[in-house]
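To fix ideas, we give here one paired sequence and structure record:
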Amino acid sequence: MNHLLDVTTRFEERQHATPFFWHIHKAGGTALHDYLSSCLNMTVASEVGVLEGHDQDQELSPVIIKEHTFINVDTTTENGIERAEKLGFQNMLDAVDVVISPLVLPAAKHLFSTSKKGMAFVMMRHPVDRLISLYYYLKKATWEPTYKEEWASMTLMEYIESDHVESNWMVRFLVGKPEGLIDEHDLEEAKRILLEKFWVGLQSNMVESLKRFGFLFDWKAHQKWNSCFADFEAGKNRANSNSEKGQIDQNSEEW
């Protein structure tokens, strides 16, 4: 995490850092990705830049995918991050407006450096709400390579009791323990990292969170900020909104 700025870093030093969004799935990250790339027309490093055969490119550069600008890397997989590093991604950071990845440790280590640091931010969501949203997504996500037909008929309780359910995803990704037992020490270490390295937004209050990120990264100076933000506030750009299901009673067995 030494390649990410501390949240206490002085304003002057932040100007030279590249925003790094840790994408926690089903926590509003897709909506934020779309907002930055599609509405504000930012140059984004995510998984989109390797579409249309650009994963075979031998040099890194901005590419146009569906009328928007991306760097021709995939920052969402370990292989993609390794390729980006080998092709000199760090030398491209001045051309990148935001880096997006769920793989917080590999991305921080290999996409940034002590001289070209990332400035990390994240959207968070209550873990039970996120798990329920993920459950409904997996039931219909036939396009995902990991999709299993059995999920379509699986009840929420069956999903919770299955081997498919996540186990302390955020803690594991922050401390680098994808397998094995998680203990109180791991939890405290994950909390420390969040406290010291991340500016945090909440999926339950995305509009206010986006507004604060706009101040933090000076996105509000963008000429399209006002119109884009108005659309976002009205709900027009919420990519995940159509997949949300009914609330689960907090007194229920599933909760």
About this structure: The first helix runs from residue 11 to 14.
